[in-house]
Task: structure prediction
Amino acid sequence: MQRVGARETQRRESWRALQAAAVDLVGRRGFAAVTVDDIAAAAGVSRRTFFNHFPTKAAALFDPDPDDAGRLADLLAGADGAADPWRALGGVCRAYLAPHTGTLAVRRRLVEDPELAAYQRTAYRHVERALDGWVHRQRPDDPLAAALLAQAAAAVLGAAFTTWAPDDDPARFLDLVARGFALVAVETP
Result:
C-alpha cells in the first residue's frame, strides 16, 4: 500500500471513527433510531465533518474503508501465479474479510431491508471487480474459466453472508466462506 501524509492519516482516522460510531450506535439502537447528529457526536466531530466523509447514514455503515481496495490488491498480488487459482482466491477472500468481522452482525441485520441490501452490494462491487481482474490476469487465454472463477467466488461470498446468522460468532462467517470454496471446488486445468 502507498504511504499517506499526516493530513490524509487524520482524515482516515476521522472516517474510521465515524464508521465505528455508526456501527456501534445502530447495533445497539437500530437504524431508524440513530441520526447523523448522533453518529457525529459519538465520534467527537461535527455534523459537517460527517458529511465531508459520508453522503448518508447508510454510507457510514457500508462504505468500504479507504485502505480496503489497496489491501485487497496487495493480497491478490501476493497470490499471482498460484498453481491453484481457486484455492488462492479462497485464501485471499478469507484474509480480506477477516478484519471485517466486527461489523458483520450489524451489516447482516441491516441487509434485511432491500434498499440497504442494494446499497451494500453497490458499496462492495469493487471486491467483485478486483477478483474478476485478478482471475482474468491469471487466465488470460481462457476468459470463460476466468469469468467462472470470479463469479463463483462472488457467489460463495454472497451465500456465506446471507446464510450466516448475525447472532453467530463472526468467525463462523469465515468458516462458511472456507466451506463454500471447498464445496464449489473448481477444477482449473
In short: The radius of gyration is 18 Å. The longest helix spans residues 6-29. Residues 111 and 117 are 4 Å apart (CA to CA). The chain has two domains: 6-62, 68-184.
